[in-house]
Predict the structure.
Amino acid sequence: MIEAYLIHILILIAIYAIVAIALQLCLGFSGLLNLGHIAFFGIGAYTSALLLLLGVPFIFCFLVAGLMAMVFGFILAIPTHKLKGDYLALATMGFSFVVYAVLLNWTELTRGPLGIPGIPKPNLFGFSFSDNFSFLILAVVIALGSYFIINRIVKSGFGKVLEGIRDDELATRVLGKNSFKMKSIALGVSAFFAGIAGSLYASYITFIDPSSFTIMQLIPVLLIVIVGGLASLPGTIIATFVLMALPEALRFVGFPSSIVGPMRQILYAVILLLILIYKPKGFFGRVEME
Amino acid sequence: MLEIKNLKRYFGGVKAVDDCSFKIEKGKITALIGPNGSGKTTVFNLISGILKEDSGKTLFDGIEITHMTVEETSNLGISRLFQQPRLFGNLSVRENLIMAIDEDNTRFWKNLIGYKLDREKGDKINEIAKLTSITAFMDKQAKNLSFGQKRLAEIARALVKPHKFLMLDEPVAGVTPPLRKEISELLLKLKKQGETILLIEHDMNFTLNVSDKVVVLDSGKVIAQGSPKQIKTNPKVLEAYLGD
Ligand SMILES: Nc1ncnc2c1ncn2[C@@H]1O[C@H](COP(=O)(O)OP(=O)(O)OP(=O)(O)O)[C@@H](O)[C@H]1O
Ligand SMILES: [Mg+2]
């Protein structure tokens, strides 16, 4: 019983870790406060779910989920590329509202508020990941792969240019680096990983509806990125473990489920406040928040 | 090398740059001087493409760069130092220089696969680091440097960036007298190596010592140009500076 529960939590940690390191690429490394991130997660989840239900093999659904989100990432980069800080946050938040509204109202495609039930579990080369333990292995492998790729990007010269844009965009452009192209790629790649995480999520929970992809669902992810520390990938992973496990711990101490839900929100709010006051770099961050 | 023709840029009623024309010759140090607010930095921003001109033209090596973006102008071979320090604060000095010299670092797939910076580029960084005396703090985070160190590191970054023409906006403003002397010697060394430099500077003595040609701006207009000797005795210039 406890074991099954642990596996469940670990799967969610693996999925959220992907979403968080993807956001870290945007926010921590490129300085883009992208509040539309959750929409990419949703676009991936819906793309994958709908294709799976059409009988398309999982591997394609998974990749197309990433690519679809990436296309939207590139599209979002166009109108927002001249915006900074709060304005960028507002515009990207607007994007997540638009995506939410489309998911809710395009009922022929998404079934609107009824959501999509019965999403098939992944099946790769004849092997079905239908029990949670094998799903956990799949999720961890994909999370490790995502970490490897994003880590490689941020450690490369390309990643340093992104950091340059974060620190001083004009100075980066004066060095001849096309900041629009760089930011578009950062947003696109980040969206890709959020999209594949969405695909995993849809197949794990087997049910999705628009309410899983609102700005409220982004708050824990944002918190993970900030607590872990801007521009730190290991910090992001540690923070994912801690922040996902902490509310669950409440359950073990004996709080009933009806209290754990609201407590989680309060807990997150308190942690965010404490971090902003006492540790503005997060626990492993190199970069101060502005 | 660079030619500016009837450049004009107003901010509302302020005539920041008003019908400016001058030429910059290859291998020479040209100084752009003038009282506070006379439009010097605006001229730099117009050349770099950071600001758009209301009218006029800029030619670089015979190519019209008037309507080019900041990146395009830069990639044609124009490097510049800003008036205010603009290093990438969270990166080390070395990373600042590598980013400037590496022309492949905006290529996504190449970077994902991985490549090594050319040896020559590494050598160039070391050479410039020595020349600008920044070797001691190459691995420090840029935001932790002193003002003078920042200035030197930023000059180094402008130098390693591949370029044919260098624009320096007040490289010695606010630095200590010994450092000022060091930077002026550096400029002369650079000229010997064949650099073409456009220099903005307030300090007349400093400017007249290092430059071959001086252009004097006042209220956005070129009021005089010529050799340092001619400028020193030009009554219009004296008036602009004394009236300041
Ligand atoms: N972005 C801007 N918006 C409005 N006015 C501006 C802008 N940039 C410059 N100005 C105005 O244009 C005039 C010229 O400014 P500029 O910065 O070019 O002078 P400068 O010669 O570099 O002065 P300093 O020696 O103080 O650096 C000033 O009156 C300034 O207030
Ligand atoms: Mg100025």
Remarks:
- Residues B 11, 14, 16, 34, 36-42, 83 surround adenosine-5'-triphosphate (ligand 1) (CB under 6 Å).
- The mean pLDDT of chain A is 91.
